[in-house]
């Protein structure tokens, strides 16, 4: 790199172009004509490549590198050549951790006080990153780095997760990444992911039967990108953010990876916690006198679980262990590529083993289909049903998650789990740092208190870059994190952070000079449970020498507790945490939460060819009467395939033609498919197919009567006995003319779902708008609906 790179003023970004100040000649052939050569922008000399790996929903005790039962040889190898940080912290939830990591600021300060699907109009919870907090990727790109993200993005406001954007919050537009390949959601199916290449929806290049798995695909794409970069621009450093959806549910992994753990977890989660703590002490990732915290009474003991359910529970954990080892292997493929390219030596690698604690969102028994949990319908999923599905766990036919007890075990030796920001079980994640050219130590442990907000400051420090004061003309708020660089060189370096607040779903805590105060307000898997008043929350106090938060001193030192409670309020005010908001279901409703909604009124008009439309971008038909009217063109010889589908194999609905006959299928949680079909195939020509759903009423999730019409004439009728009240899917979308990812109906195989005619348009009407005595939409009516949305 040119030494001139070190002389550039970089506090204002983009770096202003300076006008040429030399002599001007008339003729370019004049001997006095001279201009300096064009120099591509590069960061200061010595700036390393940067790779940040962020796994999903892995607790402190998941990986073998930190004493866990899941083999992670890649993390272990990197740690042997680098450092392990054993007091590294996240925010207790995915969107907030990612927003904090990518911005270097506390999550509420960048609008991400919860997941995007629960955004409100309060600044700390809006899901809108202010333009005063430019992402790290943007800062690095404007300083001459190549930037790319692969995997999960869960930071886009839900009203912008549609094919038309705007894309200001997407990785490859406003997020600062020149390239993005991955998914924009909290989770996705590992076999049938909802993928984007930059901002364009794409499909996997093969099926699960042909060997497709998302984590492998992400590694392939990352490897291709870095090879191409180093082939064409070998002197240009890169910033790569590799964030696979693993090991977030659904837990999907090829059987050969989970088979090696067969029988490994038959003793249950309580015994596993004890085993893990022994290994952790042997590795030195917790002190030798660390105390195993008590299992909360809300989590059942292994011995309390039904005997006939235990084989299913053990299998759930086998699947998860294989999933984590498989993920670590894919990270290893990327690492070995960097080694082969001879750039690993000067690549600063952060391998963060989890964006929060292990997930306790799978309920006490675990689940075969997460949609049960999303819809508060876990009572329908009986132990007998789980036992009957044991051989399908981890396969394309499952949407599985493990039991709460396993999540707690994988957060050993700490209390609680993901979502519980008050305790280390929700926020402490093992982290490996590897940078042979910048770190002399090998295989050492660092115990400095660190937080995900420290990564941005550390990367800028390692690259010799200042924190920008202005980006795109906007004055920037200072980074909240501090550089970890001093601790790279010195195990005894002073703590770089004295104070850090934590808050998630009003589970809240404060760390200050070793002391912690904490109060748990809600329990992750008890969605809809009555919550106490904020003033009734019971606070706990832990001393600096209490590594695991095992000895509550609140009764002995009430004054110290009061000091920390007051400090929490000061920090909460400083960083936008207030007002505290413990609403759950209400925040999923845009009108109640105060966030924008794309759909206004009682009708929505869609056009043929539209696909990958997120659930938040489609009019809500749940718990109400509605109609779906489609104008289609049937060729000579008839037509087959999907006209419109929402959701997938684990819940949703579809209107389609089978053997030419109009058919409606409602898929209730994957356990029942209600079909209503017409008796005659559609004639060739332009036809209008309509489905009317008369909701029973009387509460949520009730059934309804279905009537099908063709060109206004009744073509069939039937009944749906029950519906999904809250959400069809965490990742599957709405498509016209096809059904991407998993199919709503099993009438069509994976490659046979495209409509063989032409879908002109589809109109969805709800409530009174769904009532039409002619059961037909005229061109004038369709125009009226289209104009009403302007």
Report what the structure shows:
- The strands form six sheets. The chain has a ten-stranded mixed β-sheet. Strands 20-30-21-26-27-28 form a six-stranded antiparallel β-sheet, covered by helices on one side. A five-stranded antiparallel β-sheet has the order 25-24-23-22-29, with no helix packed on it.
- It is 20% helix and 20% strand.
- It starts with 11 loop residues before the first strand and ends with a helix.
- With 790 residues, it is an alpha+beta fold.
- Strand 27 and strand 28 form a beta hairpin.
- The chain contains 16 helices and 30 strands.
- Helix 4 packs parallel to helix 7.
- The mean pLDDT is 95.
Draw up the topology in text:
Elements: E1 12-13, E2 49-54, H1 73-80, E3 83-85, E4 88-89, H2 94-103, H3 136-141, E5 146-153, E6 179-184, E7 195-197, E8 200-202, H4 214-232, E9 238-243, H5 255-259, H6 269-283, H7 310-340, E10 347-352, H8 371-374, H9 383-388, H10 404-409, H11 424-427, E11 431-434, E12 444-446, E13 450-451, H12 454-463, E14 470-471, E15 474-475, H13 485-489, E16 499-504, E17 507-512, E18 515-519, E19 540-542, H14 558-575, H15 590-593, E20 603-607, E21 626-634, E22 641-648, E23 651-658, E24 661-668, E25 672-677, E26 685-695, E27 704-710, E28 713-720, E29 734-736, E30 758-766, H16 779-788
Helix pairs in contact: 4-7
